[in-house]
Amino acid sequence: MKFTTLHSVDTVYSADSVEWCTVDEKHSVYFVCGTYQLVESTETNDPAQKQQPRKGRVYLYAFDHDNGALDRLQTVETAAILDMKWLPAWCVDSVPQLVTVSALGEIEIYELLDEERRLQKRNSLTLEHEGVLALALDWRRCPDNEHTLQLLVSDSLGQINLLEYTSQGDLSKLHTWQAHGFEAWTCAFDRWSPSRMYSGGDDGLLHAYDLRSEQEERVWTNRAHGAGVTCLLSHPQHENQLLTGSYDEQLRLFDTRNMKRTLAELNLNGGIWRLKPHPQQKDLILAACMYTNFSVVGLESAESGCALNLLGTYEEHSSICYGADWAPILNTRTDEGGQQLLYMATCSFYDHKLCLSSVETK
């Protein structure tokens, strides 16, 4: 596997999140980068900034893979960004939308305006507890209403927040419950079970909940992780498969029908912050390994068992590796040597670097 850096960008603020627009082929040129910057009290006399010690930006980019051009289209000033996700286009007049969560406990939704090629804020909601950071989010279509989305948001108090977002643009909170004793670093819906969701926390616990109960009944707790559970991936193409990342540096693959043991494990030599499956190559997983690099892992499933194999590492970043995503480019090109060419965006924290790279696979 060969990595080639096409662009290296200084994001000014520390970069921690990258999300490529996967709504449709038309909008696959767009991706966003979220940033997180601490404001020292000595840097400003502005009382508002002293009360908001974490600021951020959302950068909107367009990448033309035919000529290799990368354009920064917009900079949105916000509170520090912790996570972002694109929502399906059907929400409002077939316009892609972006949801972000921030260090102010805010959930903000932007719509992507095609003609202007910019984001416009549409709605927002703030978690109730003062000083709470919204850490991670996930979304799904509501099981009993295809015109409504459900959002999961985990926070720094160890809580999970279940929200509802309608096609009319209404955003409201349905439930909040205490899931972990420390930060709830991650949360995810099960892509194969409409009633199931998961949460992972700094307490090293992985929980599953049944959302059919008003009390969000806990189905099971997994204690396999040697440190905080930092990311979850309910695989969209492999039924019943759940991948987890942890500060203990192990990538784990579970069958959710039997959580007593893992199907496979792989040490990536760095706490794992994000896991992203490739939109077309379902067995390629991009992992952001905080203190090491960005790794591409191959997932092998067979009747004889499952395996996780390290296929390549991207070493361009010199700081904490937080944000990563594949480009959902449908007309994947092939170079002269017959190698398939993919694209990815990655970003890192203290060196505030965003890289866009091509990846050649055999």
Q: How would you describe the overall organization of this protein?
A:
The chain is an all-beta fold. 1% of the residues lie in helices and 60% in strands. It is built from 1 helix and 29 strands. The protein has one helix spanning 47-51, and strands spanning 2-10, 15-20, 30-35, 37-38, 54-64, 69-79, 81-92, 95-102, 106-113, 118-126, 134-142, 145-155, 159-166, 171-178, 186-189, 196-200, 206-210, 217-222, 229-234, 241-246, 250-255, 264-267, 272-277, 284-289, 293-302, 305-314, 321-326, 340-348, 353-361. Strands 2, 3, 4, 5 and 6 form a 5-stranded antiparallel β-sheet that branches. Strands 1-29-28-27 form a 4-stranded antiparallel β-sheet, with no helix packed on it. A hairpin with a 4-residue loop joins strand 13 and strand 14 (171-178). The mean pLDDT is 92.
Number of helices: 1
Order of helices and strands: EEEEHEEEEEEEEEEEEEEEEEEEEEEEEE
Look at the helices and sheets and give the structural class: mainly beta
Strand fraction: over 45%
Low-confidence stretches: none
Topology overview:
Blueprint: E1 2-10, E2 15-20, E3 30-35, E4 37-38, H1 47-51, E5 54-64, E6 69-79, E7 81-92, E8 95-102, E9 106-113, E10 118-126, E11 134-142, E12 145-155, E13 159-166, E14 171-178, E15 186-189, E16 196-200, E17 206-210, E18 217-222, E19 229-234, E20 241-246, E21 250-255, E22 264-267, E23 272-277, E24 284-289, E25 293-302, E26 305-314, E27 321-326, E28 340-348, E29 353-361
Antiparallel strand pairs: 1-29, 2-3, 3-5, 4-5, 5-6, 7-8, 8-9, 9-10, 11-12, 12-13, 13-14, 15-16, 16-17, 17-18, 19-20, 20-21, 21-22, 23-24, 24-25, 25-26, 27-28, 28-29
